[in-house]
DNA sequence: TTTTAAAATGAGTGATTACTCACTTTTATT
DNA sequence: AATAAAAGTGAGTAATCACTCATTTTAAAA
């Protein structure tokens, strides 16, 4: 079983309940959706790649869209998982006195996750403009829970004088842009280029720290 | 008339050679492609929306993909137009002594352009992962000409001590992330939200300046 | 007014689409 | 071993797809 297959299995926590053929269908769908897009991928193509009959797909997923949702929804949940832990502020107080330490730990953790789930991340950002249901789920979870958490974190470090006085939403926006900008450039735009990842992450954090630290 | 304006007018010029029906086809296609995506839009739908027969589309565009390219290619050219002007460094020396002034003028100019062409920008970023021909064109023009220009600009301001010593490509990446991050958040993710655009652009530039300025 | 070429049409093409269903095979329960 | 339920199958379906082409309409030159 490949690393990717393991990852996929881990991601779908109810993977035990999936049959062998179902796992193959999911893997094939992820592959094709990421490569050609959801709309341009046919169910016959997925069936062929998975080595199953086309009818088998519709035994487990009523529609093609239901298959998409079954794939993307758990990924979204995992992506935002670190924000949903209960006592985030306690963790912050104990382990991350300095903003830089928090940023470093956080960025490296999330990059590691996305690196292992790049096809799923790709599908997610590609399909979110076209799937109202997906957008609904995203807004409900991200906008309400994650943004709220992030605001707390920003205000936490602002109170400690480590982040410039600026509306928390703006701080979140520029920080998120910088981080996702790195991930997208590194793994989607120019994955074939030579990257000194450690140095590049270091510089990205340096830029973020400079940009966010109060002026002297 | 500036060199830039000339460039833009030149790109608009062939619009006169389009038939009335052809213009309606292009408008309908932009509308549908932006809303549902290229693959999920049928030619019959475009014809219906444009009020023409389906055959009329194929009289002017051999294939559906050719219609897409005819729409997106000029947009790409217009987007990068400011970078292609010949004596950019002269302009810089004369008008933009300070990086902040350059950033402000540049960002506001490009935001204005994208604001007026949001559906086209949307189609562009949505389809570039799936259209090798589009990606080819993009890389050929952006990677070679625009990146080269941007490196010159970065090095120009680094030599003047206004940008931190850092690989130019990294500077370009974090700056582009910040700027596109604002545009995407403002016009694609949350266009319905209340935005104090002037203040938000001001803060974005402030963050950029802080992040890029040499440490003291 | 006549001529001519480009523009526009829409019924028709074979291929492909998402999905169904009667049926067979596998697995679990007794 | 018998039975039932679940999993898997693949030929078949109507609808839709991108695209063609013989024909008609439009418009400008001669």
UniProtKB/TrEMBL annotation, chains A, B:
DNA-binding region: 42-61
One GO molecular-function entry: DNA binding
Domain HTH tetR-type: 19-79
Keywords tagged on the record: DNA-binding, Repressor, Transcription, Transcription regulation
PANTHER family in the cross-refs: ACREF/ENVCD OPERON REPRESSOR-RELATED, ACREF_ENVCD OPERON REPRESSOR-RELATED
Protein's recorded name: TetR family transcriptional regulator
Organism phylogeny: Bacteria, Bacillati, Bacillota, Bacilli, Bacillales
């Amino acid at each position: 079983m490949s690393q990717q297959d393991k990852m996929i299995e881990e991601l779908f926590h109810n993977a035990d309940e999936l049959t062998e053929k179902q796992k193959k269908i999911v893997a094939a769908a992820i592959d094709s959706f990421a490569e050609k897009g959801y709309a341009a991928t046919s169910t016959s193509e997925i069936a062929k790649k998975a080595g199953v009959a086309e009818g088998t797909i519709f035994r487990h997923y009523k529609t093609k869209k239901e298959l998409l949702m079954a794939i993307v929804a758990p990924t979204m949940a995992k992506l935002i998982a670190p924000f949903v832990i209960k006592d985030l502020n306690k963790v912050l107080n104990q382990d991350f006195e300095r903003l830089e330490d928090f940023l470093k730990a956080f960025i490296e953790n999330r990059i590691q996750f996305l690196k292992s789930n790049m096809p799923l991340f790709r599908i997610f950002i590609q399909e979110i403009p076209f799937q109202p249901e997906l957008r609904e789920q995203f807004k409900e979870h991200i906008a309400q829970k994650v943004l709220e958490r992030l605001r707390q974190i920003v205000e936490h470090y602002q109170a400690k004088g480590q982040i410039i006085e600026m509306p928390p939403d703006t701080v979140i926006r520029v920080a998120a842009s910088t981080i996702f900008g790195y991930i997208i450039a590194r793994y989607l735009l120019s994955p074939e280029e030579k990257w000194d990842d450690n140095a590049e992450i270091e510089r990205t954090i340096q830029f973020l720290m400079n940009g966010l630290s109060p002026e002297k």
